[in-house]
Queue: 2 jobs
Job 1
Amino acid sequence: MGLPYEGIKREVISLRDEATCEDYGVYPDRRNIKQKLDLGFILLDKPSGIRSKTSAFIAKRILSPLNVSKIGYSGTLV
Amino acid sequence: MHVHKEFDEEHLKKQMLEFVGKINQLPPVRSNVKRQYRERTVYYLDILEVDGRDVLFRVGVESGTYIRKLIHDMGEKIGVGAHMVELRRTKVANLTEDDSLSTLQNLEDAVYFYEKEGDEKPLNKVVQNIEKAVDFLPKVWISDFAVDTVCKGAPVAVPGVVKFNPFKIDEWVLIYTLKGEIVAIGKAAIDSSSLKDIEKGIVIRTDSVIMRPGVYPEYHRAQQ
C-alpha cells in the first residue's frame, strides 16, 4: 500500500559507453557548501501557525550572510 | 479529525474507508481554482487512533486533494459532521520525515557553526542536493557536448543521449549530466522504447532549466 512513485525501481538502459570530462561540472556528492547553497533544497519542518512564505523568508534571512539571495518553496497543504 | 456527535466506531471506520479510491471534490469557497468537481485518488487510509470524538488517521492522496474537505465530506457520510483539527505531511514522492527534515532552528544553528566555527557538517546535512528533490522521475543522461545547449533551452536530441530510464511519451523526464548533475526538466517527445531504432530527432523538450549556461563548454559542430 503506497503512493505511485514510492519505492519505484528504474532500469538503466545504455546506448553507448561514454566518459565525462573531469575538467568541468562537479559530481553532486562532491559539491562544496557554496555550490550546494546554489543548487540545494531544505526539507523544512515548518512551525504551525506561520505561512510557508514566511518560513521561506525567514530561511532566506538566516542564509543571507552566506550570500543566498533567492529562496522559493513548494508544496501546499490544504 | 474531530467528529461533532457520538458515533459508532465500526460505522465510522467503515464509512471512512469508503473514501479510498476515486473521489470527487468541490474546491473550498475561498479558492484559487475554479469551483467545479475535481476527481482525485485516495491511495490508502489507515485509522491510527480513536480518542473520544477525535480520530487520528494517515492518508495517502493524489496531489491537489483537499484534506479539510475530505474530512468534512467524511463527517457528512458518517452522518454526524466532522472537521479537521491538525494536518501534517509525512511524505511526498520519494521524501519522508526521515530524510533530514530540519527546523528553522536547525538551519540557524547550522549557519552559526559554519560561520563562527568553520564547521560545514551541520549545514551540509540541512541543505541537500537539488537532485534528491526530483529523484523519483525517470532520467536521461546526456553527453558533455550536449549539456550547454540544453542549459540555453534547446531540446535533447537522439545523439546527445548516452543512457536513460524507460519513459513514456509526454512524461516528465529529468535531464542529467554523466556526472549526475541535473541540467533541466523536460517532457518526453517520444517513447523511450523507440530510442534504439532512431538516429536523430527530438527526445525531450526542455521545460525548466536548472543549470546555468557556461558550466560545460559551448558546443561547436566542427569539434564533433
Job 2
Amino acid sequence: MKSRSNPWFVLALCAIGLVWVGPYLWMLSTSFKSLDELVRAPAYPLPSALRFAAYREALSAVPVWRYMLNTVVMAAAIALSQIALALPAGYALGKLRFRGRGATMALVLACLVVPAQVTFVPVFTMLGPLGLVNTMTALVLPFAVSAFGTFLVRQAMLAIPDELIEAARLDGASEFTIVYRVLGPLVTPTLSALCLFSFVYHYNDYFWPLMMTTDDSVRTLPLAVALLREQGTGVRWHVVMAGNVLMSLPVLALFAVAQRRILRAVTARALA
Amino acid sequence: MASSGLSPSRAFHPFVLLAPTVLVLATFFVVPVGLAAYQSLFAWDLLTEPSFVGLANYRALMLTGELARVAGRTLAYSAVVVTVASSFGLALALALNREGKLVAFVRGAIFSAYVVSWVSVALLWLWLLDGQAGLVSRALPALGLRPCDWLGDPSIVLFTLACVTVWKIAGYAMVVFLAGLQDVPRSHYEAAALDGATRLQTFTRIVWPALRPTAAFVGTTSLIASFQAFDVVRVMTQGGPVRSSTIFVYAIYEEVFMNLRVGRASALVVVFFVLLLLLTGVQLKAWRTLAQGRVAT
C-alpha cells in the first residue's frame, strides 16, 4: 500500500517501535552505568563510559554460567526428548490402525487442557518421597512428552501417503527405521518448529524450576536473575539489568536469526 | 476415520511406539489431577501425617471469602489483559499489514517481547516503574503529569500488572491477526475500492467479518493464558501490597510453599482447574467458529 511514504505514518511507526525497543535500550544502557549515574537526576539516557563492572558484579553474585549451563541442558533435553517421542507416537496415531487409537488420541488431547499451574502441587508431593525434588529429572521428565507436539506430528503424518510406508516395509525396513529415517526427514518443518518453540519456552520458564528446586546445583537462569533483585538491601538496578541482558540476549539473538521459523511455530500453535 | 490407516506389521508395534508418550502423559497430567482432588480432602503440612478433613478445605475457602477475592482479582486482571491486548493486537495488525523494512522491524520489535522471558519483562518494568529512579516516574513530571505509585497502590497494582502483560503479549495477538488478515481475499478489497467504500466501511463490512473467528480465538487464548499468570506477580509484587495482586496461581503457590497447607492448596487447584475447563469449553466453541469461518471463506 502506498501510504508508506506518508511522514505521519513513519512518525507513528517510530513512536510505536519506541514503546517496544525503548525498554530494551534502557535495560542495555542501565547495565553499563555506575550506581551514581543511576540515581543522578536528571537521568542521562547513556552511560558516561562503557563500564562492565555491573556484569562482573552480577557474575560474582550468583554463579550465572553454572545456571546458564543448567538452563541450556534442561531446555535441550526437553526439546530433543519431545521430538524423539512425538515421532513414533505421531506415526502410530496418524498412520496405524489398532484398538485403543481413539482412546490414546483422547488422552493426548485431554492433556492439552492441563497446564503446569494445575499439576505442580500434586507432582511436587509425588516427587518428594522419591527424592526427586532438586534433580534435573524433576525439571525434564514431566515435559519429556509434549501433548501438543504429539498432536502436531500426528497431523503432519496424516499428509504422508501410505504407499511410502508400504514401500519402505517391502524394502525390509524396521518400524524404527521407518519412523526415524524415512518419516522423520519428511516432517522436518514441524519438528524444527516444535524444537525451537519448546527450547525457548523452557529456557525462559520460571514457574516449574522455581517450584521443583531449592538447590543451586540444578537451578536455572531465570531464577538466578530474579534472585539478583531479591538479594541484599538497596536494589542495584545496573547489576540486575546486566543479568537481564545476559539472560535475554541469547533469546533475542535466536529470534533475530530464526524469526520466520519462530513465527511459524507460534501461528501453528494458534491455527492447528 | 477410525478404520483408516495401515495395519501394523506386528500387533504390538503401536503399543511400543506409544508406550513412553502414554506413560509420561498419564503420570504427569492425568494422575496429578486425581491426586489433587484426593489431597484436597486432607489437612497436610508436608511434615506430619495428613489427616482426613472431608470438604473442610473447600468450606474454609468459601467462608473466609478467600476464594471469592482471589477469583475476583484474577477476573479483573484477565478482563483488562484480554480486552486491551486483543484490541491493541488488532490495531497493530491493521496498521502494520504492509510491506517495508521499517514496518517489518517494528513488527519484529513488538513480537520480540513475546519471545523474551516473563522474568526479563517483569524485571525490566520493575526498573522502569521504580518510584525513585525509574524512567517512567522521571519522564511523567517532565510531561506535566503526576506519577503514581504503580506497584504500591492496592487500587491500581492489578492494572499495572495487566499493562505489563499487555506489553508482552500484544505481539502474539498481532501475529495471529496478521495471519487472519492473509485470509481476506484481495478481490474483496478491490471490489470495495471499486464501490467507493471508505476505510471504515471496508473494515466493518469486509475485514471484521472475516476476522471475527480469529478475534474469538485470540480472546479465548489470552483469557486462558492470563488466568495462568504467575511470573509477573511473583517477580513484581509477590502478591502485594496487602494481597491486592494475589491472583489464582500465586495464591496456590503461597498456600503450598509459604503456609505449608497442601490440602487447602489442592482445593484451590481443583477449583482453578474447573474454571479452566469452563474457559476451555468457551474456547472450543470459538475454535469451531474458526473452523467454520475457514470453510466459508
